[in-house]
Amino acid sequence: MAHRDCTAFLQWALPQLGLRWAGYRKVQGLVCKRLAHRLRELGLADLAQYRVRVAGDALERERLAALCRIPISRFYRDRGVFDALRDAVLPALAARAAGRGERTLRAWSAGCASGEEPYSLAIAWRLAVAPRFPGTALAVLATDAEPELLARAERGCYRSSSLKDLPGEWLPLAFERAGELWCVRGGLRRGVGFARQDIRAEMPAGPFDLVLCRNLAFTYFDAPGQEETAARLAARLAPGGFLVLGCHEKLPAAIAGRFAPGPHECIHASA
Ligand SMILES: C[S@@+](CC[C@H](N)C(=O)[O-])C[C@H]1O[C@@H](n2cnc3c(N)ncnc32)[C@H](O)[C@@H]1O
User: Fold this and answer.
1) What is the pLDDT of residues 4-40, one digit of tens each?
2) Residue to mutate (ligand 1; options 69, 82, 149; most atoms within 8 A of CB)
3) Cis peptide upstream of residue 207 (ω within 30 degrees of 0)
4) Cα–Cα distance list, 172 to 78, 175, 182, 183, 246 (Å)
5) Which one of 20, 55, 141, 226 has the lowest number of neighbouring Cβ atoms within 10 Å?
6) CA 172 / ligand 1 centre spacing (Å)
């Protein structure tokens, strides 16, 4: 499939799915590979034929939307963000909860891929923060639209390439070796739950003390989708809670005023 043809197809298709081309420039290769595979499955000669199919078939449009979901993640992605969560956000939330006599902090990882993000949070909490707050627990809900990714998340086993950003001393504490893979230790999985949800259609009720929505809505969704998602995320944050975005992402202007700067430029404090 020619690069030029794939670009033209994506520039036609993405807006119809509420997605924006600009978010896909860097990951176009992955989507084009998936498209070529889909064409072979359908026995279609080229993207012109696939266009006709997508235009007339709602189920194929859903299939295409799934092909456009990018699964890339890794543990402790954007180290500075996780350092700030570990050193500032989680201790502040835990101290506030303890002061109020609350026993559970609630976090939501929206678009959790294969579990790298919610497990990173649970590991940082358990190894670095929880010992100072023995009466407090962290409950992490992790959601994604892709069942295959969620199944991998439930298995909790990863190649070492997913773990290269994790603080080295945590590796043996948080993982056990299973052949080529590293599996999250059982005790660290407790408190992390997974659910299938399309963030456009539904969100957990909340309220949450901490919401991570990174490298999803604010990279790939079009402007109205970003605004709508941001407003719905903000509505699920407890007062004084924190919203974490990907480090190349910005809150839509209409919502940004509801947040103050957090302890890292990618972390926003709800008013
Ligand atoms: C690029 S990954 C980001 C993973 C993780 N948040 C991170 O930053 O490393 C984006 C994830 O969002 C999921 N996703 C995409 N569209 C979604 C939607 N509409 N609802 C829920 N999850 C979605 C994808 O399946 C994928 O797992």
Assistant:
1) 999 999 999 999 999 999 999 999 999 999 999 999 9
2) 69
3) yes
4) 21, 5, 9, 10, 27
5) 55
6) 28
Rounded to whole angstroms, what are the CA distances from 84 to 18, 242, 262? Answer: 32, 12, 9
Annotated domain spans of the chain = 3-67, 79-270
Smallest CA separation from ligand 1 atom 16, residue: 69
Q: What is the pLDDT of residues 102-114, one digit of tens each?
A: 999 999 999 999 9
Distance CA 164, CA 70 (A): 20
Calculate mean pLDDT across residues 204-214: 96
Strand partners, 110: 143
Q: Token pair for residue 8? A: 């033209």
Amino acid identity for residue 28 in this structure: Q
Residues 160 and 127 sit within 8 Å (Cβ to Cβ): no
Query: Is the pTM here over 0.85, yes or no?
Result: yes
DSSP type of residue 140 = E
CATH 3.40.50.2300 matches 79-270: no
241: how many CB neighbours lie within 10 A of its CB? 23
Pocket lining: 78 vs ligand 1, CB cutoff 6 Å: no
- Residue for token pair 């902090």: 105
- CB of 195 closer than 6 angstroms to any ligand 1 atom: no
The percentage of residues in the chain with a pLDDT greater than 90, rounded to a whole number, is: 97
